[in-house]
Amino acid sequence: MNIKESSIAAPRDEALNVARRGYLRYIILALIFVVTVINYADRAILSIAGTSVAQDVHLDPMQLGMVFSAFGWAYALGQVPGGWLLDRFGARRVYGCSIVLWSLFTALQGLVESLGLMAISAMLFLFVMRFALGLVEAPAFPANSRIVTCWFPTRERGTASSLFNSAQYLAVAIFTPLMAWLTASLGWQHVFFVMGGVGLALGVVWFWFYHEPHQHRRLSGAEMAHMRANGALVDMELNRKSHREPVTWHKLLQLFRHRNLWAVYIGQYCITALTYFFITWFPIYLIKERGMSILEAGFSAAIPAVCGFTGGILGGVLSDYLIRKGAHPSLARKIPFTLGMFLAMGLVLTNFVDANAAVIGLMAVAFFGKGLSAVGWATMSDIAPAGMIGLSGGVFNGLGNIAGIVTPVVIGYVVSTTGSFSDAIWFVALHCLVGLLAYAVIARRFERVVIKE
């Protein structure tokens, strides 16, 4: 065989090897991607229906901000218990129960007007429902991280993690216009009922299809061997059952004593602040500050969402590409994060333009950058202690989602007291700078943390 023939044959051989190994892990990734799309769509319903809900049950901006924050309170508080449940009972059972329960609490929110409650009682009802929603959704992202750690080799983990993390943007891109149309056509109550029903159906699919690597009948021996040889912790769930070690306070406290972990925690807090602005106040900003209708806001919000999804995928692909080219995973995670946070700071420029097209364009660039930065879960998969993947993810996401408490309330307070979103935009943009500094200055070389006995 000459050189030209061998150069052609090499890609063919690689393709055949991939085909023989199988691709079940990509089907698993597609499943958690769809679940995460629905997860974020359910969180975002109130941002689209919020104007109509507030009008019908007589909520002012501060009260609506409190309702938005209820999810963040519960979601943050539920992360460590959710991570413990994952380490104790595994992703299949915990995640499946989470899907079913969050779908029920989504549907129940649609009943608030029919109950005939006064404004303060309606606010309390919605607060409780949003709190319950956040509590039962708490295991979702630690479960995603755990599943990716089990199923994907190190050099594929960045792309896999960025894909499920980017589901939040696709949720907005697809469901925001759909929910806006349902709200305008049938009433906001129907949005909660429809999304709750979709989630319950997805829960059935989850329990039918998802199993851990060592139990999945469709996983070939070749794919299992490939995953194990290249860094996937395929035996993590098996080891969880065979020799479970108790989590002591000593071990837990070490998750708060490593500089690199704190850098990643701060980065997650900052990027989550942008997320909560986007899924709570952004459509209302377009309606109240920019004079758009509900339908216009729904379709306009989809444009930055598509850009965020594109940036999210690109961030993971770039990170994995750098690893394949020989870069240390530490550098491969830091480059897309810091570059993305720099681009996301551009959202502050919306305070200096008048045209709605310019606002959407700037937001699109900002959320492209936010998506590019979405490598935090891949970083956690790289550095979390091997025996505490679920709990580490819970701490990481719990601290990050304190932003889900702070951001909606601060924005609600600013808008209520100033009558404008200008200062709120500055508040959100500042998080981009802090996140950039966390990865660029605080973090050292990312390595897997070893827990000392």
UniProtKB/TrEMBL annotation:
GO terms for molecular function: transmembrane transporter activity. The keyword Nucleus does not apply. It is found in: Cell membrane. It comes from the Bacteria. It is a multi-pass membrane protein. The keyword DNA repair does not apply. The chain crosses the membrane at residues 23-41, 61-82, 94-112, 118-141, 162-184, 190-210, 261-287, 299-323, 335-353, 359-379, 391-412, 424-442. One of its GO terms (cellular component) is plasma membrane. Pfam families: MFS_1. Residues 28-447 form the Major facilitator superfamily (MFS) profile domain. Keywords: Cell membrane, Membrane, Transmembrane, Transmembrane helix. InterPro entries: MFS, MFS_dom, MFS_Na/Anion_cotransporter, MFS_trans_sf, Sugar_P_transporter. Belongs to the major facilitator superfamily. Phthalate permease family. This is MFS transporter. The lineage of its organism: Bacteria, Pseudomonadati, Pseudomonadota, Gammaproteobacteria, Enterobacterales.
